[in-house]
Amino acid sequence: MSRYQTLKYEEFGPVARVTLHRPEVHNAFDMRMVKEVHACWRELRANDDIRVIVLTGSGDKAFCTGLDRTAAAVGEDDRTPELGQQGGTPMHQNEPGDWLMPKTSADLWKPIIGAVNGMACGGAFYLLGEVEFMIAAEHATFFDPHTTYGMATVYESMMMAQRMPLGEIMRVSLMGSYERMSAQRAHQIGLVQEVVPAEELQEKAMELAQTMASQPTLALQGTVRSVWYTRELAYRQALAVADTLVQSSLSEESLSEGQRVFKSGKRVDWNLR
């Protein structure tokens, strides 16, 4: 994966860290990054050595500030633009989310931790909308500038409405660039699960990822898929696929791995939060 130009990819045993790496533009994504993120998600699907993923941004100023809107960056100066309207009617649109979202676009069901290291705004929500949970540096902020610049926030607000109370996503979406949600407020409403000093963010994310990755792969992925089903389906529809998920998430290897922990007689060291 060394071919990436806009990402840093690192492996730490069973954990992969994917770092958005365009710090000169606050890790905003251009078409190269969009395609590289998608390629990374697809390759991680097939990499059985990796059980858990940490997603973060370069530097300490921004996780990601969405789409880099310079013409060259998004392909608008090309006769075949890759984002926006395709063809002569508005019925065919290409959106960044067609490549960026790990679950919707890449069918990736390995746990992803979002480590938010600064500003997260606009198109960053394509990514954060589909992580399992987030931890944030104390100085992290969340906002969506679309309305300030004359655009409705649609995909971003739809995705984050799955993670935030109605009033909160409305306020973030409608206040545009005029207000930012602090990491502390994000924690209060459940958007972020933990807030840590900036210098501890990466260490904490890796600690959580390594702990999760110490557990059987199929158990992790089956759990991720089942919880997301409850967000995507009506309650009784989700229950209807529960038996299938239980059975497909069982294997001799997974159960044996779990039994080794149980039969060792050693108590698992646990943390209280």
From TrEMBL:
Q: Which InterPro entries match?
A: ClpP/crotonase-like_dom_sf (IPR029045), Enoyl-CoA_hydra/iso (IPR001753)
Region of interest (Disordered), ranges:
76-96
- Give the family from UniProt: Belongs to the enoyl-CoA hydratase/isomerase family.
- Which SUPFAM superfamilies does the annotation name? ClpP/crotonase
The record, for Gene3D superfamilies, names: 2-enoyl-CoA Hydratase, Chain A, domain 1
Task: Please report the name of this protein according to its UniProt entry.
Answer: Enoyl-CoA hydratase/isomerase family protein
User: One Pfam family from the UniProt entry?
Assistant: ECH_1
